[in-house]
Each structure stands twice: as C-alpha cells, then as structure tokens.
Amino acid sequence: MVKKIIGILGCGWLGYDLALKLKSQKYNVRGTSRNSEKLKKLTEKGIESFHVDLQENKIYGDIQGFLEGLDILVIDIPPGLRKNQESDFAYRIKMFLRFVQVYEIGKVIFISSTSVFEDREDIPSYDENSLPNATDNNGIKITAAEQVVQEMIDKPVIIRPCGLIGEDRHPIKYLAGRKEVKNPDAPVNLVTRDHVNSLIFKVITGELNVFVIHAVSEPHESREEYYQKAAKDFGLESPRFELNSRSLGKKIVSGL
C-alpha cells in the first residue's frame, strides 16, 4: 500500500515534531519553513523541504511544488499577532487557500487555538459544539481565519490546542518568581505537544472523523495550584498570585 503524501505548512515547534513522527511511520512528508536552517534540518531528516512565506500581501516560495500531489495538508502557521497586532491573519490564509483550491487535496487540517473563546468571571466551559465568542484582537482574528478555512475548503478539520507544553517548553519557566500573577483561581488549559500530534495522526489515519477537535491533556487545576506544583517539579521559585481580585478564565473541554 502506497503511503499518502502529507504536507505541513509551518514546521515550527509543533509541525517539525509532527513531520518527524510521520516520517517514522513511513509517510511521504513535505514541510515548509521561512528559516533556511530549519529547511536544512528537514532535508537532513529525509523530509522534502520548501521555502514558503505568507507575508501580508504576497506569498513567497515554491507554493505550487509544495502543494502538487498532496493527499493531506496540515496548516500550522502562527498568526504573528504578537509582533504585529494589525496583521490580517485571515487574509493571509485566504491567499494561501486560493492556491490550495487548485489542487485536489483530500483533507485539510487547520491548527487553530482556544483563543477563539472568551475568558469570563463565571469561568464558562467550552466544548467542540461551542461557538467562538472572543472579543479580544487575537481571538477575533483567529476566529476569522477559521471562518475562511470553513468557507473555502470542503469539510476541513479544525484543531484547537490549548497552551502547548513539552519537555523543553513550559510556562512555569516564565512565571517562576514573578509577583502579582493574575487569575489564581482560573483553571489551567494546557496540552502536550505529543497529545496534539497524536490527534493529528488519528485524523490522518481516519481513526478520528470529526470536524472540530479541542486538544487538552492536562488537569483543570487552578492556576495557583498547578504552577506551584510545576515550580516544585522544575526546582524553580513559585510565582506569587494576586489574590485580591476576581479571576477571569475558561475551561476547555473535549467530547472526544
């Protein structure tokens, strides 16, 4: 049986790990990056690499070569809103999908974010049936990108990871020792990179056949409780939380 050709648009921290896992399962894998060193690493791992860069008004690189013949496409590029709050993420996705529409790609998986949901004092729970309701700039723009994908692609799969963590990446490293950290009572919404990539793999193999997936793997402990434990585990100074104001938050849950 011939293995499918899978393309990953954006081989960052999550996408690169996914590419390696798929390659280990004998899939034909293509990956993109804007970084020449990352492209070199992909090539060294036997992954066909392509320079593709989605700028505000133009896409640079060999986008046709990347897309031609793909069976499955995973879109995993950051919105870039931390560096540029005015960036039109939805428009950049739309530019790219105009190319995607030319090719007969069987399945498109879009890696979104739970930022599409609003934090509130009543700590609402959001599952895969919940409608995005973000009111902040980041959440609104990611929601708009999701809508573009759903409008332009037939039956795409939207995966919304919570905050990503892994062996070399954990928020306690940035919170350690900090004072007056907000929202002590809000539940933690985190997911390991391995869990997200296991979900993507199940979509690729057909084991999961749904159109919206929430990726969450860590317990919904309060931020104060969770990060105090994490600080101890990492041998770091515990953060100190602001206890005199009400917490804003949300609980991301999954029906899968």
TrEMBL record:
Molecular function in Gene Ontology: aldehyde dehydrogenase (NAD+) activity
Q: Which InterPro entries does the entry link to?
A: NAD(P)-bd_dom, NAD(P)-bd_dom_sf, NAD(P)-dependent_oxidoreduct
Cellular component GO terms, alphabetical: cytoplasm
Q: Where is the NAD(P)-binding domain?
A: 12-205
Q: What is this protein's name?
A: Nucleoside-diphosphate-sugar epimerase
Organism for this UniProt entry: Nonlabens xylanidelens
